[in-house]
Amino acid sequence: MAFHPFSLSLHFEFLMNVTQKKITQWMLAAVVVCCTAMPMFTSCIKNEPANNECDVLSAWVEGDDYESYFYQKGQMQVEALPSNVSEIVFTVRSLLSLPPMPVCFNLTPGATISPASGTPQDFTSGPVTYTVTSEDGAWRREYKVLFREADLPTYKFSFEHVEEELLESSNSTYHVFYETDEADQRHNIWSSGNQGFAVVQARLTPERFPTKSSPDGYQGKCVCLTTQYAGDLAKMMGKPIAAGNLFLGSFNLIQVLIDPLKATEFGIPIDKEPVRVTGYYKYKVGEKFTNKSMKEVADRIDEAHIYAVFYRNTDADGNKVVLYGDDVLTSPYIVSKAQVKALPQTDEWTRFEMFFEGDDADPAVLESLGYSMTLVFSSSKNGDTFEGAIGSTLYVDEVEVSFEEEEE
After folding, report:
1. What's the pLDDT score for residue 197?
2. What's the pLDDT at 169?
3. How high is the pLDDT of residue 12?
4. Long-range contacts of 250-253 (CB under 8 A, 24+ apart)
5. Whole-angstrom distance, CA of residue 22 vs CA of residue 36
6. Neighbours of 23 (CB within 10 A)
7. Residue 45 φ/ψ, nearest 5 degrees
8. Partners of 216 in the beta sheet?
9. CB within 8 A of 248, min separation 6: which ones?
10. What's the confidence (pLDDT) of residue 83?
11. How would you classify the pairing of strands 140-149 and 87-92?
12. I need a labelling partner for 212 at 20 to 30 A (CA). Which of 228, 306, 344, 395 fits?
C-alpha cells in the first residue's frame, strides 16, 4: 500500500505539538497505527540528537562463573527492554547463596549509569536502584534491578490488581493489570495494546481504552475488552479498529520500529504442565462487522477469542525463544495449545473451559523453567488483521489454570 501524502502532513503537524524529549514516543505511536510509513519514521529517529536519551536497552550478568545460579543461561540476560519499563528482573534458583552479581547494561548513546555497569552488587536484601543520566546531563531515569527466586504467582486470575499509568506526552491514562504471589511480591505478567493506543490518543481516561478494568465482575473486578475505532489516521492507513486484548507477556513498543510483528512478546516461564483453563465471560457482539477498509461485510459476525499456548522457551543451543504476533499459534516450539471453540453472545456470566492438546512436557525441562505459557483474551478474533465490529465487548473474570500434577 502506498503512503498517503496527506497523512505525512498530519504526522508532522502532530509531532510539532510535543517537546523534543517526547518526539520519539509519538513516532512510535504513529508506527503502531501506520506501519507502512516505517522508513520515514526510522529516518526521523536517526536524525534525532542522542544526547538527551537515558534508557537501558538491555541488561545481563557478566561471567560464566555465575551461570550455575540460574536455571538456564538465557535467564542471565534481559533484552529489548520496552521504553516504559523501570524494573529489571532476573530469576535465580536461590537468594540464600547468591553472591554479589555484576550486572552490565547497554544504554542509549552517550548515557552513563550509576552504580557503574559491571560492578558487583548485593541483591539479596532487595532491589538495587540504578540512575541513568543522558549525555547532556539534562535527563535522568531510575531503574530498579532485582533478583527473584522462581516463586511464580498463583494461576488463579481474578483481575483485582490494577493501577493507572499516565503517558505524559499525550496526558492519557490507561489501566495496567498485574498479579501478586504469596509473599505479596508484584508480578508484571499481563500486557495489552493500551500502550500503543495511549500515544496516539490525547487526554483519554482509562474508561476510553480498549482494555480496562470493570467493577462488575463475576466476583469483584474483571477485565473489560472492547473493539474501538482507532481514529481517522489509522482508518486512512487500513488499520481502523483496535480490539481490546490482554495477554501473558509484554508489549515492546520500541521493537515496532525494527519489526512490527515482534512487538507483541507472548509468554511467561512456567514450572508446571498446564492441562486445562476455566473461567467466566460475558460477550456482546458489535452491530457491524467491517474489514480493514471499514466496509461492512454483511454475512460476517464478530467473534471473541480466548486461547492459551504452552511452548519451549529455549532452542537446542540454549538460546531464548519467545513467541510473537506472527507465530504465536504456528511456532515449531509449541508443545500444546488450548482454545475455546465458541463464545456465544450472552449478558450473563457464563463458564468457559478449554483443554490443552498436543505433546507432553519433559519433566527435566519443566524443572529448569524451560517452558513458557501465554493466555490471550481478545474482543475480536480477527482484530490483528483490523477486522471486527466496533462495540464488540468481552468481559473475563475468575480464570484458573489447572496442571498435570493436580490431575493425578
Report:
1. 83
2. 76
3. 30
4. 250/82, 250/191, 251/82, 251/191, 251/192, 251/193, 251/195, 251/196, 252/80, 252/82, 253/28, 253/32, 253/82, 253/83, 253/84, 253/195, 253/196, 253/199
5. 22
6. 16
7. -65, -35
8. none
9. 189, 190, 191, 266, 267, 268, 373, 374, 375, 376
10. 76
11. parallel
12. 344
Instruction: Report how far Cα 372 is from the mean position of its chain's Cα atoms.
Output: 14
Cβ burial, residue 270 (10 Å; 0-12/13-18/19+): buried
Which residue in the block uniquely carries the three cell numbers 487526554?
A: 203
Distances (CA, A) of 402 to 17, 272, 342, 399: 50, 9, 20, 10
Question: What angle separates helix 23-33 from helix 5-15, to the nearest 10 degrees?
Answer: 150
273: cell is 504442565
pLDDT digits (tens, 9 = 90+) for 31-51: 444 433 333 333 334 455 556
Grid coordinates representing 60 are 545481563
Q: Are 51 and 135 in contact (CB under 8 A)?
A: yes
> Looking at residue 372, what is its pLDDT?
96
Give the chain's residues under pLDDT 50. 1-46, 406-408
C-alpha cell of residue 284: 456482546
Which among 28, 31, 85 is positioned nearest to 55, based on CA atoms? Answer: 85
Q: What is the pLDDT of residues 238-268, one digit of tens each?
A: 789 999 999 999 988 776 556 656 778 999 9
Is 397 within 8 Å of 219 (Cβ atoms)? yes
DSSP assignment, residue 51?
Answer: G
Using DSSP, state whether 200 is helix, strand or coil.
coil
CA atoms of 305 and 294, how far apart (whole Å): 21
Distance, in Å, from the CA atom of 342 to the CA atom of 353, rounded to the nearest integer, reads 10
157: Cβ–Cβ under 8 A, 6 or more apart, which residues?
Answer: 179, 279, 375, 398, 399, 400
**What is residue 15's three-state secondary structure?**
helix
| Alpha-carbon torsion angle 177, 182, 185, 190, nearest 10 | -20
CB-based contacts of 232, cutoff 8 Å, min separation 6: none
Cell reading at 342: 465458541
